[in-house]
């Protein structure tokens, strides 16, 4: 699906980090972009800066009715949705057993609510809208749904039981959903980033970041615009579906 001014994107978590970089990249290509996030302040700044072809809406992705409402409002504003990126997510840390306690089940649940349920709600309601689109090219494409996984799905660190499980769930969702939706002209895929410089990773201590960067083949973290370029390449490649693709600077984690 070629990104042109005729396309409408719906992006959760678009007020910061990887989601925001993708909003900017896609907007710069002339498409219309709806951004759903619970950070109203940053949404307002983004809307003020980008001015046209941007629609922002406050939305907590853990609330199914709020995700449905954000999608309904996007359709009211722009007529439809061609591509959705479920980028809202959090990274949490709680070790299974330590001298200070054991796995925080409340945190496990809240991480799952945001990273898994929050992504699945987006896919469910976006698919309903996309299925009504007319095919936009000779491949019969009507839409693309993209999830954001993590290399932690395969290589979780100490304390990442909750986070890694949510990203593993995303990896597991992609193929069956692609099979469900292929007949409707909708592709489904997931991107698994390594370490990228965003507010989420800034929360990590400097010495940890240094060690993580040393585990890449390029001795650095990725930049949000490198992630955004990859999203656009995946959207434009009409044969990509049912797969999770890593963008990770060749990272292979040592056991920290
Ligand atoms: N940065 C990395 O190194 C990295 C690596 C692997 C995967 N990821 C994944 O990429 C995604 C984006 O991460 P980021 O680094 O851009 O983080 P970020 O913290 O910069 O941005 C996350 C955005 O999600 C929003 N958000 C969080 N909870 C929400 C909720 N319940 N409802 C609506 N919006 C909510 C926040 O307001 C924020 O705007 C996440 O799924 C994360 O797990 C990031």
UniProtKB/TrEMBL annotation:
GO terms for molecular function: oxidoreductase activity. Gene3D superfamilies: NAD(P)-binding Rossmann-like Domain. Keywords: Oxidoreductase. It holds the Pfam family adh_short_C2. This is 3-hydroxy-2-methylbutyryl-dehydrogenase. The gene is Contig17145.g18269.
